[in-house]
Design goal:
The chain is built from 16 helices and 14 strands. By secondary structure, the chain is an alpha/beta fold. The chain has a five-stranded mixed beta sheet. The protein has a three-stranded mixed beta sheet with strand order 7-14-13. The chain starts with a helix and ends with a helix. The relative contact order is 0.10.
């Protein structure tokens, strides 16, 4: 096509565009048909509609001279598929790792629990505060061992205004500090979610307790009204001559959730010995496929009511009162990234179910790969191991990727209860013990038989509707002397039935080194003894030879 024909075609195109702009002023209606056909956005007649002409791109409805002014599209990188089904949660912003959890290092295994945080959920005051205070004093290290045990208490009260104990009020959750006049903080305000039975606010209160307890020993807050060090309830007892003046508080090693109706069934020293492994959590969790999981509508609603972003194989249920080690607790808290708004946090996926506190923590541990169902050769998270193979091994063919060895899962959660609860009555709430020391004598034996360290549900009185707490008939009060006497009696019987040597703080490696050095010294002494004996026999033989020579000389002289 020569220049004149191109110019005429261009002028005709501008003319058609001007006609379209004039027609658009008439409310968008085309009153003058063109070529006895409909006007398809200026594409012309039927021949142009079918792609055989026109000056408009048929695919996008834009002119051919349209030019994209933005940057050129970069080639999209290949992303390996999320075989584990957690891609939606990762893209939403949750910090969920891929692959299996790494094994604990030798240094982590050597470390023992030295700091425990009690995370209490109450309505008002702590009814058995006097027993918990006495329990803190039952830490009695073995002879020759150093007392370096710390205990903290963090409390969330539904009605903080009803708390009368100053000792407990000092350890209540408070709102974040706010600056007032003169760059000074305003008076603290207590933090409360005011949870109802089965509401998601209980889960939020547990998360708040865990967040504040994780700050103990890791913050620089100077104002003691907001500092996490105010939660400390016990320091090591150090003799005056050994006191160095060091007030450093170590981070918490284990986090235990308790309620206002809980009582310890062992001393604090025995508690530290039972949970001395800092890499293991105690969660009495069960999967939907477990035989012990009830098959009823309540369970169905709990498992099915979670948001569909969380796949079914990652949904677990457990007792609310769990023990989390520091490594697992920090990973659970890190699932919600710091920039996330409250309405986008992970707990929102559990707001439509009853008793979300029984589902949240075991499910989050499952999302992290710390809890998985592997019964009868079945692994519900086998795809997580396949994801790990995709990241660690760059194979060229899909066949070699499928035939790659799948790493064995790591079980870092002890699926057993740490708090004894009696569900024999078959109701939605466990049995309540209101007969004081009579019930405690029976419950402490049942709890210790199951390996539990805490028991519930103890109450000072039977709540009568319409009667104030001050006017209730007290029937379940337990004194410190009664509690201590019963615990010592049961522990003594257990020691007689199963005698165990007194544990010391000396590690196994130190024992092995000491035994090896002792054995080496014994071998060295035995070697010296053998050398002395050998030297002695040589000297004896030499003396005998000399005596024999003298006898021969004497006999020769006599013969002469």
């Amino acid at each position: 096509m020569d220049f004149r024909s191109q110019l005429s075609a261009f002028q005709n195109g501008r003319g058609s565009q001007s006609n379209q702009s004039n027609n658009s002023n008439n409310r968008g209606y085309n009153t003058t048909p063109q070529n006895n056909s409909h006007n398809y956005y200026g594409r012309g007649g039927s021949d142009q509609r079918h792609g055989r002409g026109g000056d408009v791109d048929r695919r996008r409805g834009r002119p051919n001279n349209w030019n994209h002014q933005g940057p050129p599209h970069s080639r999209r990188r290949y992303q390996s598929p999320d075989r584990d089904g957690l891609g939606d949660l990762r893209r939403f912003g949750f910090n969920i790792p891929k692959g299996n959890q790494p094994l604990p290092t030798q240094e982590e295994k050597k470390k023992k629990t030295k700091h425990i945080a009690l995370l209490a959920i109450t309505i008002g005051d702590l009814p058995y505060e006097h027993i918990w205070k006495d329990w803190l004093q039952t830490v009695s290290p073995a002879a020759g061992n150093k007392d370096d045990y710390f205990v903290s208490l963090v409390c969330h009260a539904k009605y903080p205004d009803q708390v009368k104990s100053e000792w407990l009020k000092q350890r209540l959750l408070v709102q974040k500090p706010r600056l007032g006049r003169g760059n000074s903080y305003l008076d603290p305000e207590f933090l409360t979610r005011k949870p109802e039975w089965g509401s998601v606010e209980i889960t939020r209160a547990m998360i708040d307790l865990l967040e504040d307890a994780a700050k103990i020993g890791n913050e620089d807050q100077k104002d003691m009204r907001f500092a996490a060090s105010r939660y400390l309830a016990r320091r090591p007892v150090v003799p005056i001559e050994e006191d160095t003046g060091d007030d450093t508080i170590p981070p918490v090693d284990q986090f235990l959730f308790i309620s206002e109706t809980c009582l310890p069934v062992c001393t604090a020293h025995e508690f530290f010995q039972k949970v001395k492994d800092t890499t293991v959590s105690w969660v009495n969790a069960r999967h939907r496929k477990d035989e012990g999981t009830p098959k009823n509508k309540y369970e169905d609603d709990q498992f099915a009511g979670i948001n569909r972003r969380i796949p079914g194989q990652y949904r677990w249920k457990a007792d609310q009162w769990v023990l989390l080690c520091r490594n697992h607790a920090t990973q659970v808290l890190a699932l919600d990234r710091p920039h996330m708004q409250v309405r986008h946090q992970l707990w929102h996926n559990f707001r439509n179910i009853n008793a979300s506190d029984e589902m949240y923590f075991p499910t989050t541990l499952s999302l992290l790969g710390l809890l998985r169902y592997t019964a009868d050769g079945e692994d519900t998270q086998r795809a997580r191991s396949m994801n790990q193979n995709d990241e660690t091994k760059s194979t060229s063919s899909s066949q070699s990727r499928v035939e790659a060895t799948v790493p064995e899962p790591v079980h870092l959660v002890l699926k057993k209860p740490i708090t004894y609860t009696d569900w024999s009555e078959g109701m939605r709430n466990p049995a309540c013990f209101t007969q004081g020391i009579r019930d405690f004598r029976r419950v402490i034996r049942l709890a210790r038989a199951q390996g539990c360290l805490v028991a519930r549900k103890f109450a000072p009185f039977v709540a009568v509707p319409g009667v104030a707490n001050e006017d209730q008939k007290i029937t379940g009060q337990i004194t410190v002397e009664e509690w201590r006497q019963e615990v010592e009696l049961v522990m003594k019987k257990d020691e007689e039935a199963n005698p165990q040597p007194i544990e010391s703080d000396v590690t196994n490696e130190e024992k092995v080194e000491a035994n090896s050095s002792l054995k080496a010294s014994e071998e060295a002494s035995e070697g010296e003894q053998h050398i002395d004996d050998a030297v002695g026999t040589d000297e004896g033989e030499q003396n005998e030879d000399e005596l024999n020579e003298d006898d021969d000389d004497q006999q020769e002289n006599e013969l002469e």
